[in-house]
User: Fold Rfc1 protein from Symbiodinium pilosum.
Amino acid sequence: MGADSRRRDGDWSWWPVIEVAGWASAGLLLLMAVVVVIIFLVRRRQQSYEARTARALLGVSSRPRGEQTPSTSVPGSCISSMSGSDALTGFEVSHPWNMPSLAKSPSVPCCIRFVYPIFTLLCCGLFILADLSETAHVNVKLLVAGAPHHADWEWSGTMASLTLLRAARDAWQAGAKLTAIVLGLLNGFWPFLQTVVLLTVWFLPGWCLSPSSRGSFLRLFAALGKCGLSFPWLVSIWAALCQLQWRGHQVSADFSMSLETGLFLFLGAAILTNVLGYAADHYHYLSTSMPLSAPPWSRAGRCMGGYNPPLKAYSQYRHWPTILCPLVAVATAGSAYITAFSVRLTGSKSPVMINADGKARLEYVKSYSLLSFGLQFPEVSEEEVGSRLLQVTFLITSLAAPLLLAGVLWAVWILPMQPKTQNALLKLGYALDAWVALDVFVVVIAIAALDFGKMTTYAAHEGAMLEACSWMERELSREACVGANVTLEKGFGLLAASATALLIVPKVVLQACSKASKQRDELSGRARASSALAAASLTADPLPLRGPL
Assistant:
């Protein structure tokens, strides 16, 4: 709505440029994705043909399963795919039971070993308390002017009281199955499963859980930790509804939302769980990335000074990250300004509501882009710290973190830096990638577009508003009371494309950076080993020459 008004007012200075650039970037990303898929399929087919040809020449139909050569690589966590983390020492690979648990690992500070289980249990308690507490109240005030048999008729009360468990139950009863599944699984069951798994993985030693399995678990839970933000974002859409004011010819309606403690408890628990997942992943990387048996020059190579060539110099795919990161940043910035969805407040036909054109229309629409939706969070409650925290969390996870992530990855890929600076930026990149939650918001909007009308209709006719809606239907000959729904706009396509790109591109670029940094360390280690051997040969005492007696 804001973008449309700017276009009507003639402000074409910068808005069309961002929109066109965003759509162009998304189109290029889609084209590149199609090309990559085609190349991958062609190569797989070619490799399969070559393998069949080789087996035919050797007279072997297929390799028995028992003769498959096992992979000796040990996949680490999403952080541990950084330099030197893809391979442990042979002793650790063949004897994983010698790896201590993270609770006893010397790579983990003593204070972290002590407080990590405490904070994990605290998260579990916060989730239980948040599930049982009220998260928000949607209040409605209805005013009917000139009602039959009444001068003015007024009703005020609660349209919906939101708690996680009750909202999931009501969504299921209203026919909003997807919303019920998201609330019940991603926000009800998943947080408890995540905290239990994190606590278990923290205490299991290597003889119970191998380093590769531990890294896989931590990588999965670090990537999915942001799913707990879907419930706060759903409440935020309710908050967008409550910013609407319905002013009809006869009927007026004012909405307001009061955020309760349960929402902020849930938000704090979701943030803390994401931090704990990333922390466990980080310390798993520290405990596996630097074997004690590594040669001295290998460890020294990680801390050497001076500026190295950029990481792209150590990779054969040097141009892809250089192109992909700016495209993702431009697409994300463009999607933030374009109208993505609308919240619509609707009523039904009434003889007294027919306008001059003869069309019965009683609705109010407010459109949002990603940026305008985030900036209007304070209208819910400008003075409460909790609503500010909700706004800041949304803007960081949906807009700031994606843009900063693209900039960090692009800089570490093309700029010459010290190795320790490159490694630090890679760690920052992994941390930012764990906090990018634009995909969560896109999924919430898509589900709200399908189910929001069912939920509001159910709340209006099954809750405390039943009396008011029954009176209006009886006295005003209305077929329905008040309703609301979410409508997707054309900018939602760009927003969804940006979210998809942010799911794939940063992980591809981070993997390329990790391989390049590993190659950098190997070359540096070889150079230092050669220098050490050359220096040793020069300083060695020469053998005495024997002359004639």
User: Anything to note?
Assistant: The chain has 17 helices and seven strands. The chain has a mean pLDDT of 76. Residues 80 and 285 are 4 Å apart (CA to CA). The longest helix spans residues 491-539.
